[in-house]
Amino acid sequence: MSKEEEFVNLIHENQGLIYKIATIYAKEKAEQDDLYQEIVYQTWKSFDHFKKASKPSTWLYRVGMNTAITHLNKSKKQLNTLPFDQVTIQFSESNDSEREEKIQLLYTQIRKLNLLDRGIIFLFLEEKTYEEIAEISGISVSNVGTRMSRIRQKLKSEMNPKSTTDGTR
Amino acid sequence: MELDEMKSLWADLSLQVEKQDKIQKELLMEITKQKFRSKLNSVRIPEIIGSLVCVGYAMYFLSRFGEFELWYNQIFALVCIFLMIALPTASLTAIKGMRDLKIDTETPAGIMDKFVKSKVRFWKVQRYGMIFGVILMIAILPPLVELNGADEIIQKPWFWGLYVPGGLIFMLLFTRFVYKKYKETISASEKMLRDID
């Protein structure tokens, strides 16, 4: 299999992952599309390292998160999205409007966290263990624990402001 | 909302995302190639043109250095040659530092730290560049005048009337811009570094 084919297969299999990273780091649709394309490009640029990586899944999470952190800080005002109609990120919305609303609320609250915490909660929701989160994000396991409890409190109070003020769950 | 509920929502979302239409394989390579071309086009043209102009002038002074008869013009020319090579080199190196972050080997915490530091370094270079730019603006004039035999021009009051205020206004505007960007960068960087701790 050629390098291009391997790369295309990797991206094709992980489009959902890239989509989710783009969505938690960027708010507007145009920004999300731009970030999506940037992650694809950066993955290609570093693809030779991917083949040598001991844990390919960790590698892709890291490239995606690092691209989001640097790209969003570099180009806040100018987007460089290529005009492919077919490349725009779309997915069918669920029929359950209440659940859909909750998903949107979850996204909104995650986007309020700082860049590193956004990545940590994302990895947590992706069912990664604290050890894996620490390995991918580059902080210690105990720091992951501390941050997780802080994030938990923050999300809980923001998503359910009433329960925290009333002292109810 | 508890974490368990968030996880369940996220699992639903992941299922939805997996079900969505995927971008065609052939388009993925096309995106990559087009993005690569657009990156090449966005190479910082102003920095490169500015650097070429500076190096061009430095070469010009070097090639005609033997023609300077006045000792102070020799010193001014040496200062100019040094600045016209050092300033663009420092600026391009700082830009390279920001662009060369290892996306695939660094961790997100590591990349935030390096990104912030390289950005601060870039704006520090711009700040020093601004100060040395004023020195260059003054130092370049006497040797240029001697080489071109235009002594009478610098004796005309209108010349100074245009050159000094014009130069000062430009430097003032540039200074304000750099100082504002520097302050913004420092405060954004401090926030990002606090987020890592």
UniProtKB/TrEMBL annotation, chain A:
Coiled-coil features, chain-numbered ranges: none
UniProt keyword terms in alphabetical order: Sigma factor, Transcription, Transcription regulation
Domain RNA polymerase sigma-70 region residue range list: 10-76
Record-linked Pfam families: Sigma70_r2, Sigma70_r4_2
Superkingdom of origin organism: Bacteria
RNA polymerase sigma factor 70 region 4 type domain boundaries: 104-155
Signal peptide coordinates: none
Entry similarity comment: Belongs to the sigma-70 factor family. ECF subfamily.
Protein name: RNA polymerase sigma-70 factor, ECF subfamily
